[in-house]
Specification:
By secondary structure, the chain is α+β, with helices and mostly antiparallel strands. It is built from nine helices and nine strands. The protein has a seven-stranded mixed beta barrel with strand order 1-2-6-9-8-7-5. It has a two-stranded antiparallel ribbon with strand order 3-4.
Length: 388
């Protein structure tokens, strides 16, 4: 056991140094709350109702409220009260043990001698044994001034804290004031029942059945493997870090949404520039190997555009002309619209013909050469190379 308090019993002019130990303990199995979905721990936070912040225990003070007014009491102010700092168990009376109301008993503590010689301790114990009385004492423990009874149990002084008289409620039940008649036969039968159940009290003969069955349930679940790794049930403690993670998540989602919206417009613009660049690249590229992929992308993009617009396949050439007109206008500042349409039409026809079969490629090459020269001369002023 670990001592929870040190002090001295003031027995007249005799001072008895003692250590105080809790004499009782709770045998209940300790359970905690978890989330039924994942077994995560449920914890309670000390949150301020004014600023909504989670408050550390060191920043918490006590207060008293009455008639709409609150008085805050700091730890230093509470410690300054003389009675709270007293480590003296003062004997004030010796009374017969039968005069103590059992309802007033609160908690029991063992007292151990805290000096090299236990003579004063033994002297007080003998005095209580010889007089068959209980010492009424006053002491301060855990920020409360308490009333107590000092008695003997197995040669050890036991301090039992008592409730103050105003802490014991008065029983006032009007139903018990009614006049109830009980026959002599009923009283005799009840007395016989009492005698049939009479016995000497033996605390060891009683068992907390609920705790026993609870322990059996826990052990059965452990044997069946129905358990979790304890470390996995602990999460990140709430605080500034947790709030920051939420803010970062929201910001990331917002950025992703903005990027998605902006990316859609950018992708459409990039596709238009790619189509236009593909036509110019095929005519003004550095080599034939670079011109072929550009023509393939343009050729594959045009049917998709025609289908998405709902136009029939027979009108793809007309739709392609319109796209090429826009690209030619954006790329060259002084190009004429009629020449752009004619060049785009010939170029588109050449690409479509080249994509169909290898036999038609030779025809496309001969038709593409003057067209490429015309487009390159008007749009960029660069001499076009004959594609492979």
């Amino acid at each position: 056991m670990r001592a929870i308090w040190k002090g001295a019993i003031a027995f007249g002019l005799v001072n008895v140094p003692v250590k105080v130990y809790s004499a009782t303990e709770d045998h209940d199995i300790s359970l905690h709350q978890v989330h039924n979905a994942d077994g995560g721990r449920i914890r309670y936070q000390r949150r301020c109702e004014v600023c909504s912040q989670v408050i550390d225990y060191s920043d918490i003070e006590k207060a008293f409220e009455e008639d709409g007014r609150t008085v805050v009491l700091s730890k230093d102010e509470l410690k300054a009260i003389p009675a709270e700092n007293s480590h003296e168990i003062e004997v004030v009376q010796f009374v017969p043990s039968e005069q103590l109301e059992p309802m007033m008993f609160e908690k029991s503590y063992y007292l151990e001698p805290d000096s090299k010689s236990p003579k004063a301790y033994v002297l007080l114990r003998r005095a209580l044994e010889d007089t068959d009385r209980v010492a009424i004492v006053q002491f301060a423990l855990r920020e409360k001034t308490r009333l107590g009874a000092l008695r003997i149990k197995d040669d050890v002084l036991v301090l039992q804290s008592l409730l103050w008289p105003d802490e014991v409620r008065e029983a006032n039940f009007p139903s018990l004031e009614a006049d109830v008649r009980i026959s002599a036969q009923e009283r005799d039968m009840s007395a016989a029942l009492v005698e049939s159940m009479a016995a000497d009290f033996d605390p060891a003969s009683f068992t907390d059945e609920y705790q026993v069955q609870l322990r059996q349930l826990i052990e059965a679940k452990l044997e069946q493997g129905e358990s979790l790794d304890t470390e996995e049930t602990f999460g990140v403690e709430a605080g500034e870090g947790g709030k920051g993670e939420v803010i970062d998540l929201m910001e990331a989602l917002k950025r992703s949404l903005d990027r998605k919206r902006g990316g859609g417009a950018g992708a459409a613009a990039g596709a238009s520039e790619e189509d236009a660049g593909g036509d110019s690249g095929s005519a003004a590229g550095d080599g034939g190997n670079e011109a072929k992929p550009a023509r393939k992308r343009s050729a594959s993009a045009k049917p998709a555009a025609a289908e998405s617009d709902g136009k029939p396949a027979a009108r793809r050439t007309s739709s392609a002309k319109s796209d090429d007109d826009k690209a030619g206008t954006a790329k060259s500042s002084g190009a004429k619209g009629t020449a752009g349409k004619s060049t785009g039409s010939r170029t588109t026809a050449t690409k479509s013909t080249a994509a169909k079969s290898g036999t038609a490629r030779s025809t496309a090459k001969s038709a593409e050469k003057p067209a490429a020269k015309t487009a390159a001369g008007k749009a960029t002023g660069t001499r076009a190379r004959k594609p492979a």
